[in-house]
Amino acid sequence: xxxxxxxxxxxxxxxxxxxxxxxxxxxxxxxxxxxxxxxxxxxxxxxxxxxxxxxxxxxxxxxxxxxxxxxxxxxxxxxxxxxxxxxxxxxxxxxxxxxxxxxxxxxxxxxxxxxxxxxxxxxxxxxxxxxxxxxxxxxxxxxxxxxxxxxxxxxxxxxxxxxxxxxxxxxxxxxxxxxxxxxxxxxxxxxxxxxxxxxxxxxxxxxxxxxxxxxxxxxxxxxxxxxxxxxxxxxxxxxxxxxxxxxxxxxxx
Amino acid sequence: xxxxxxxxxxxxxxxxxxxxxxxxxxxxxxxxxxxxxxxxxxxxxxxxxxxxxxxxxxxxxxxxxxxxxxxxxxxxxxxxxxxxxxxxxxxxxxxxxxxxxxxxxxxxxxxxxxxxxxxxxxxxxxxxxxxxxxxxxxxxxxxxxxxxxxxxxxxxxxxxxxxxxxxxxxxxxxxxxxxxxxxxxxxxxxxxxxxxxxxxxxxxxxxxxxxxxxxxxxxxxxxxxxxxxxxxxxxxxxxxxxxxxxxxxxxxxxxxxxxxxxxxxxxxxxxxxxxxxxxxxxxxxxxxxxxxxxxxxxxxxxxxxxxxxxxxxxxxxxxxxxxxxxxxxxxxxxxxxxxxxxxxxxxxxxxxxxxxxxxxxxxxxxxxxxxxxx
Lengths: 253, 374
Known about the structure:
A: mainly alpha, Helix Hairpins, B: globular, proton-transporting ATPase activity, rotational mechanism (chain B), ATPase_csu/dsu_sf (chain B), ATPase_V0-cplx_dsu (chain B), hydrogen ion transport (chain B)
């Protein structure tokens, strides 16, 4: 029956039916588009997931290496942290953000921008300068890995959210909006059918009544005819008599 | 003559220092240390040595810097004991030894003052061997000019400072240059003092100090490649007491790459070996690399090969330094043993810290890269 399931509260008119049908079509197109988007995002998401995994493993190794190179520096020169802290004036390692577009989702991507030259390249001049340089390079690599990981991780979070939203939308369209529109269409068409049938029945009724009336009128007319027909013919004054059938005195030929 | 009268003033302390020397870790003990799985084991192993239970009161996650600090503290205590019992000329000799650390400390304070740091917190970072009575006075200075005059008046380093730097030089870029200028002046002065003592002290100390001077010259040369340090400035930083002086120093001053450094060192047979075997052992190290260091090489690209050789050179310097310091113990009735003992002990602390670091960071393949003393 058309009454089952939720439907929109519209008047069951033909216009509403056309509108609803249009909306159903729109909803179906939207559903397929969103589903495509979801699939694209999920593919990307999986790829990013894999890269996050790789980057994390790499980070583990690189960080270990970096802290070990710091140990080498300590071995060769002793504690240089204070000197380095004091002599660092400008950042030689900068991170720039840029935007990436994946099926309409804006993902921030971070890029490393290394400024050549450094403030403390004379540190360890007398002893262990090579280790200091090495530690610097290794740590720069480590930070690079971290930056990579950061953009991946951000993309991961944003994509996750977007995929969820898209999924919600796809499911909402699939399971709520489309059934509702279908129900509405069913309802409207059934109502319209119902109205058609009523109309038909009404017309039939009217016709029947008219027929009956017409028959009754006929009977009466026939009865009247039987009485009145002879009187009617000679009635000149009534006009419209047969001109050929009668002779007019005024016509001379 | 020294042999006759040395024991009058120095015999007791020489005995003490030779006793200390017997307490240095042996190869066997190093082997035991490298077998440790955790820092906890490491501490237990160390407590069986002369270090005793120096880490006993530390809260459990012991950091490697704590180990290094505590061990240095032991060394400082020993040194202070020696120093307080010493008479001339040994006391003067020991004082000279502290100058090297003083230079570092003064440089540290200067750096801090240039950046307007609270200088009293700098005092905690100073090397304990280089602390002198008037050091807190340096913290009173609020600007560089004032500090410069305070250094001139208050510290034993005044002569080096007066000759080497003026107040205008004390800015950021120069700080490393100043440090090395001071160190050069110090080395030359120390050597002159040892020569004035004469006898075996002069012999042994000259050998050690000459090596130290050459090492600095070579290091400065290698480390200044690709920096703003001009060749004239570089040449001024080379101590003039080394075995490379003067023609080796001249070659070094003009050197642009490591090959020219090698050429400069050709004249001295011991130094030649550093460069020869330096390259080879590095190649071997790469050849026999396991999976971990292979991935390391991938990660770092060719960074390793450039810097590896130079870093390896540093290790060879350490080995040779230890060798020279060990030789010092072969001679009796001289002061060089004190110097050598402190240097060996420092090396031992470095090695112990290295092993601890390797254990803490789980880098077992590098754990044998320390330099054993005895």
